[in-house]
Design a protein that fits this description.
The complex is a heterodimer of chains A (about 110) and B (about 120). Chain A has about 110 residues and is mainly β. Chain A is about 0% helix and about 45% strand. Chain A has no helices and 9 strands. A 5-stranded mixed β-sheet of chain A has the order 1-9-8-3-4, with no helix packed on it. A 4-stranded antiparallel β-sheet of chain A has the order 2-7-6-5, with no helix packed on it. In chain A, strand 5 and strand 6 form a beta hairpin. Chain B has about 120 residues and is mainly beta. In chain B, strands 2, 4, 5, 6, 9, 10 and 11 form a 7-stranded mixed β-sheet that branches. Chain B has a 4-stranded antiparallel β-sheet with strand order 1-3-8-7, with no helix packed on it. The chains are: A mainly beta (about 110), B mainly beta (about 120). At the A-B interface, strand 4 of A face strand 5, strand 9 and strand 10 of B.
Chain lengths: ~110, ~120
Amino acid sequence: DAKTTQPTSMDCAEGRAANLPCNHSTISGNEYVYWYRQIHSQGPQYIIHGLKNNETNEMASLIITEDRKSSTLILPHATLRDTAVYYCIVRVSGGSNYKLTFGKGTLLTVNP
Amino acid sequence: DAGVIQSPRHEVTEMGQEVTLRCKPISGHNSLFWYRQTMMRGLELLIYFNNNVPIDDSGMPEDRFSAKMPNASFSTLKIQPSEPRDSAVYFCASSFERALLNEQFFGPGTRLTVL
């Protein structure tokens, strides 16, 4: 699986958009970009994933650059409960491609 | 759905004792994972079961660790004998393998402290 690079930490004001970047310059054509987050003292939680196109769900939006070498997770209106470590993971999806390799992630702190 | 259920949530034991962690995956899921999380090493996959069969146990640290999945709704991770360096949070996760998404759903974890 391709390696990812994320900032160690970021701050965001409550109610503002949080934009979390991820670099994955060695991503292969069949690898998806996944985002998980881990709120303190809880297990990781799936947020969103994408291949080429931008994706949006009830939690977040995922913007993937045209060359697919980087992506941004957007939380449109961050709340205090969004304070968590956010993990960007790239991997082949589906079937027996089960491995999720978690790096160190980005600690997002949402401030009141 | 109650999600992935793990027990106990906290376990404190003394070095040399046997520890058994339990997991009930989401009903209908056919894949189960055990992870360990420490400050030093982050989240590591220990073992992966598919249809109750261990597929990949390359992450199991040593012979003191063993995992079983006797049926689709129950799994255990056993450490015998336990050592202080086994102190960590242990997560169980489940997924439905044939789904394209392959999203893994994590339990709340068991915080293990070995004195």
